[in-house]
Recover the amino acids of this structure.
């Protein structure tokens, strides 16, 4: 049986082709997180579903992926990383084909569950494979390449989804995965080396059940909370109780289990890994929460067409890619702390600028600050992804990658739910406050040119006033969300004190452990 170090050395001989195959799998999964969002109204009509029913097309994928991400480490350790990788790629590709062929909502939800279940392992397996395909001194470069797919995928997803839906049909949102999946399968099958397997490693069914039910309940609570008015809903209360009970029971079970628990507790003895989990949780919040806000802000308030809104957001991805290239070069020289600090400061600054937007903000200003924000997020992802695994043994990398991806996804889910809830609540509050100024005694309405058009005693004028008050109230809600994300970025900075300052070098040994 080959050792992990031998597998890594074998993979390094074909690092370029391994990178291409893993990147195709990563991009395919990352893009699918957001590509279906734009096509949802078209799928709703084509499948004869209501808005609430159609939302399960998105929710089913997210919940299935959340449940199946934690077992990735055990599956790879038990059956071999390459074998699980190939099953995941082929299953995800086949499920994508079935999604495109779906003719009813029931079929679509079922196939999206399959797509999420098979796709859950793609990101952690890609990350672990790339780490084994490069020596420690080049891990920053490997994570920069991998991070481009993770960070840029959700950004180009809506634009690509909008284009495919407008030019062809919503079916092609899923069919686009077929050529990518087939090529990724060939490259992985041909050039990725298999890892050792542990036939005697038992599966912790109790631990898996507790994590799976807890994560699924948390995802459902986050996804449906705003729609059901949070804790005024019995469903949300029940889901919150289930989350608390499952995670409490999981901790107790992991600490008292006689055999190896579902998640190896040795992972949490590594300081860099634990601190990086906190950081990546915040990064997930900042990336996806912002991506959830911008399309609706650009389209509903600023009047951008869907395609223009997508093109306006794309330069953010260019900033991210440029930053990752720079970080890969300078991380070994500068160490992690100054780069991570610069990333959070740039991200916080971009949120500060966006918190001072108004309804007349220019496209140029949005693109410019988007590039700055892309730089900030790019400065964060590479050093965090590198440091999280720099001191972990080979045998824990796949499991660690699954936990790393899970925390990023949970951060995204919680971040999106938080900003959507704040936006809805702030819009209501601000509408009430601003509406109090709409009265005959306000001197503004007696100014020349306004009184006839915006007469609150006139039904037409009152309707126009209500529309404008609602626009202003919504805009204030968006600004408060950006301000909240600014504070989140700044609040993460003190954790830098717990990170080791330097990235691994070529001379640093990469230890193995059984």
């Amino acid at each position: 049986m080959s050792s992990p170090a031998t597998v890594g050395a074998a993979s390094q001989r074909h690092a370029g082709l391994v990178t291409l195959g893993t990147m195709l799998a990563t991009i395919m999964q990352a893009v699918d997180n957001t590509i279906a969002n734009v096509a949802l109204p078209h799928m709703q009509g084509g499948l004869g579903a209501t808005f609430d029913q159609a939302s399960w097309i998105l929710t089913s994928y997210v919940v299935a992926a959340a449940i199946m991400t934690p077992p990735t480490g055990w599956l790879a350790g038990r059956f071999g990383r390459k074998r699980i990788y190939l099953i995941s790629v082929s299953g995800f590709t086949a499920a994508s084909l079935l999604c495109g062929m779906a003719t009813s909502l029931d079929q679509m939800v079922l196939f999206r569950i399959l797509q999420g279940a098979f796709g859950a392992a793609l990101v952690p397996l890609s990350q672990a494979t790339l780490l084994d395909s490069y020596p420690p001194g080049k891990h920053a470069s490997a994570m920069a390449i991998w991070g481009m797919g993770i960070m840029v995928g959700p950004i180009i997803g809506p634009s690509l989804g909008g284009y495919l839906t407008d030019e062809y049909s919503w079916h092609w949102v899923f069919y686009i995965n077929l050529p990518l999946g087939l090529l990724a399968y060939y490259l992985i099958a041909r050039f990725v080396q298999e890892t050792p397997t542990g036939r005697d490693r038992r599966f912790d069914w109790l631990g898996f059940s507790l994590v799976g039910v807890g994560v699924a309940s948390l995802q459902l609570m986050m996804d449906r909370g705003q729609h059901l008015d949070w804790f005024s809903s019995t469903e949300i209360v029940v889901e919150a109780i289930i989350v608390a009970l499952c995670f409490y029971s999981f901790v107790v079970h992991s600490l008292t289990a006689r055999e190896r628990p579902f998640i190896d507790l040795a992972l949490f003895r590594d300081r860099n890994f634990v601190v990086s989990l906190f950081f990546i949780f915040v990064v997930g919040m900042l990336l996806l929460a912002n991506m959830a806000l911008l399309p609706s802000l650009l389209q509903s308030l600023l009047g951008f067409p869907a395609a223009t809104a997508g093109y306006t957001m794309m330069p953010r991805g260019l900033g991210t890619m440029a930053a990752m290239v720079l970080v890969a070069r300078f991380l070994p020289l500068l160490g992690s702390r100054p780069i991570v600090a610069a990333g959070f400061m740039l991200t916080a600054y971009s949120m500060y600028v966006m918190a001072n937007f108004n309804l007349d903000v220019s496209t140029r200003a949005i693109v410019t600050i988007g590039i700055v924000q892309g730089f900030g997020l790019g400065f964060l992802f590479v050093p965090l992804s590198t440091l999280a695994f720099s001191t972990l043994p080979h045998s824990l990398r796949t499991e660690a990658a699954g936990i790393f991806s899970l925390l990023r996804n949970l951060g995204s889910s919680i971040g999106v739910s938080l900003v959507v809830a704040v936006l809805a609540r702030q819009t209501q509050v601000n509408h009430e406050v601003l509406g109090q100024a709409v009265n005959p005694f306000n001197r503004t309405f007696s100014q020349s040119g306004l009184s006839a058009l915006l007469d609150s005693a006139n039904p037409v004028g009152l309707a126009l006033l209500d529309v404008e008050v609602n626009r202003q109230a919504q805009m204030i809600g968006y600004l408060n969300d950006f301000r909240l994300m600014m504070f989140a970025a700044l609040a993460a900075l003190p954790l830098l004190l717990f990170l080791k300052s330097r990235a691994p070098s070529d001379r640093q040994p990469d230890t193995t452990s059984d």
